Amino acid sequence: MNKDKVYIFDTTLRDGEQVPGCKLNTEQKLVIASRLDELGVDVIEAGFPISSPGDFKSVEEISKVVKNATVCGLTRSVKKDIEVAAEALKYAKRPRIHTGIGTSDSHITHKFRATREEIIERAIAAVKLARSFVEDVEFYAEDAGRTDNEFLAKVCEEVIKAGATVLNIPDTTGYCLPEEYGAKMKYLRENVTGIDKAILSCHCHNDLGLATANSISGVINGARQIECTINGIGERAGNTSLEEVVMILRQHPYLNLDTSINAKLLYDTSRMVSESMGMPVQPNKAIVGSNAFAHSSGIHQDGVIKNRETYEIIDPKDVGVSESAIVLTARSGRAALAYRAKNVGYELTKLQLDEVYQEFLKFADRKKEVVDADIHQIVKNTKVYKEIIA
Ligand code: KIV
Ligand code: ZN
Predict the structure, then answer these.
(1) Which atom of ligand 1 lies at the shortest distance from residue 11's CA?
(2) What is the pLDDT of residues 207-224, one digit of tens each?
(3) 222: how many CB neighbours lie within 10 A of its CB?
(4) What spacing in Å lies between the alpha carbon of 237 and ligand 2's midpoint?
(5) CA angle at residue 377 from 373 to 379, to 5 degrees?
(6) What torsion do the CA atoms of 295, 300, 301, 302 make, to the nearest 10 degrees?
(7) What residue owns the CA closest to ligand 1's atom 1?
(8) Backbone angles phi, psi at 343, to 5 degrees
(9) Where are the domains of the chain?
């Protein structure tokens, strides 16, 4: 059975770059954009052209080099923003303008000091203006996560009529629970006239650690685009992590959803973004963290050495990691020590292993991790050294 495609909208260069201290110059953005194109993302949100001359330049240059992906520029529902974005995108093979406005009562009252009717009017005008420049217009209902569903449906209906091709439903503050976010998508699918003319998009922030879960719940309930960033970087606690949603859909085939991402480039792309932004990846980060395929406790190591699948649900090679790691610590067992000792040239008998293991434990209690060079030292310190090297 053919799987339904979930479009991957990468916003590493826009929402991701909003992280304090992670600003990129145009050169760096171009390198990342080319890699994202190679990775197979469907849309690259290249920046917010009105925000600065530098960002305008980046969007313009990225538009020139990207071969396959749609290149997108962010705007507010403001005439000048939209005109400037259209100008920045003029070289793109597939340009998209991403315009929108806050729709929650909190945004309407405090940010815009407006009424719901005025917000709808501004949204319609922005989409119509954007459509006069490009065919592909995405509308975001900022703070949709906290927007009343009935009003949100009304906004969606009106912007579809005005020409929006994609409807972004951002959980801007990372507030929603997965069930709630999924129910929102389902409500929109069932209550917005003309919804079949547009793609619903998930844009989830990670303030409660639920960005990935919410995006997955969104696509299970009918959304067909996920907005995400490499390593989950982004404002505050970040955005949905690209590598996580891609691998979740791949590891759960019964969902019948997939993306066009070449997962073998995930690890390398993660390192590339981390290095150019100076933003380290936490070691326990799912899919791309340095410990994502490392095993250090004796029970797990014994299982993995016998059969990798006992403790791994992803083959590390599938995401571009060469192999699983058996890390030696004071919690490691004989199986792991024998395995690592063999890798550095010592084929130990059971009796020799018993002896080396006692020496290993003394050493490991003093050191966080035992590395290959330490194994030579440990073996040398045992009474059976001569017998082992004979
Ligand atoms: O989080 C958000 O609501 C956004 C919009 C500008 C799309 O980033
Ligand atoms: Zn956002």
Answers:
(1) 8
(2) 999 999 999 999 999 999
(3) 17
(4) 11
(5) 115
(6) -170
(7) 172
(8) -60, -30
(9) 4-277, 294-389
Residue 304, pLDDT above cutoff 80 = yes
Q: With the C-alpha atoms ordered 278, 279, 284, 289, is the resulting torsion angle positive or negative?
A: negative
Contact 97, 73 (CB under 8 A): yes
Q: Which of 13, 15, 45, 204 to mutate to test the pocket of ligand 1 (most atoms within 8 A of CB)?
A: 15
200 near 175, Cβ under 8 Å? no
Q: What is the mean pLDDT of residues 237-253?
A: 98
Q: Is 122 in the pocket of ligand 1 (CB under 6 A)?
A: no
Ligand 1 atom closest to residue 143's alpha carbon, by position in its atom list: 3
* pLDDT at residue 1 tops 90: no
Tokens encoding 285:
């980060």
Taking residue 226's Cβ as centre, other Cβ atoms within 10 Å add up to 30
For residue 254, the Cα-to-chain-centroid distance in whole angstroms is 22
Element containing residue 99 per DSSP (H, E): strand 95-102
Domain 4-277 coded CATH 3.20.20.70: yes
Among protein residues, the one with the nearest Cα to ligand 1's atom 2 is 172
Ligand 1 binding pocket includes 320 (Cβ within 6 Å): no
Cα distances (Å, whole numbers) of residue 9 to 15, 42, 129, 226: 11, 6, 22, 6
Please work out whether the CB of residue 174 comes within 6 Å of at least one atom of ligand 1.
no
Query: How far is the centre of ligand 1, averaged over its atoms, from the C-alpha of 283 (Å)?
Result: 28
